[in-house]
Amino acid sequence: MTAPVGRRERKKAATRQALADTALNLFLEHGYDHVTIRDIAEAVDVSTTTLLKYFATKEALVFDEDTEQEAALVSAVRDRPEGQSIPQALCAHIKHVRISADGSDARFAAFVRLVNTTPALGEYAHRMWMRHEDALACAIAEATGSRPDDYRCAALAHFALESSAFAQRADDPERAVDTAFALLEHGWGGECHELGGNFTGRDT
Q1: Is the CB of residue 158 less than 8 Å from the CB of residue 87?
Q2: Is the pTM of this model over 0.85?
Q3: Within its chain, how far is the Cα of 80 from the centroid?
Q4: Alpha carbons 4 and 115: distance in angstroms, whole number
Q5: How many CA atoms lie within 13 A of 123 on its CB side?
């Protein structure tokens, strides 16, 4: 049974959410570089010291889903459909969460444009994304019955995550991701089949 959340915890969560929401609204309206931490704190009626207890940097105000991102990556490996290889599962997941923005969601599209056109946010987002490398490598090792220090698992995790940045520099991001994962799964020229064969994590 889940323990009830106390009033203090609810208030802290509400303040954190208010800070993140207000920051994004101000960034979208005025531009990231034209909004200060003080502006955001004043808009929420808290001190800058209080804001910095919740978010250590200005960039962090834009990205508040670090734990959820890691859990989703691990789940993409562990909970993939029967018969789907790990590279295929990661390819589909990364295209869904990092490349294919829902065009019907104007606010999300504006958020993506903000990140893509603000170097500080783009760099921060990439660093945050790559922090999940170790957790993803462990999930791949577990799913394939490999040793935790298997370099193949670490390499697949690293280059799978890096494919997002590679794709975002391409004219056709989805095609770029598909191409990157085809190479990861089959090797150059389709001659190296270790990932395609062994990294399903299931007997075939």
Answers
A1: no
A2: no
A3: 18
A4: 36
A5: 4
Nearest to 202 by CA among 145, 156, 152, 157: 145
CA 136/CA 160 separation, integer angstroms: 9
Average pLDDT over residues 111-140: 91
Look up residue 145 and give its two tokens: 């019955």
The token duo for 72 is 């989703």
CA torsion sign for 6, 7, 9, 14 is: positive
Per-residue DSSP letter, 131: T
Q: Provide the 10 A C-beta neighbour count for residue 153.
A: 23
- Looking at domain 7-61, its CATH class is mainly alpha
66-198 under CATH 1.10.357.10, yes or no: yes
Report percent pLDDT > 70 for the chain.
87
Record the tokens describing residue 49, joined without a space. Answer: 């010291």
Per-domain residue ranges of the chain: 7-61, 66-198
The tokens describing 30, both together, are 């005025």
What is the identity of the amino acid at 148? P
Counting every residue written for the chain, the total comes to: 204
Return the DSSP state at 97: I
Cβ atoms 177, 99 nearer than 8 A: yes
Which residues neighbour 143 within 8 Å (Cβ) at sequence distance 6 or greater?
77, 78, 86, 201
Looking up tokens 């200005």 gives 58
Fill in the DSSP letter of residue 6.
Answer: P
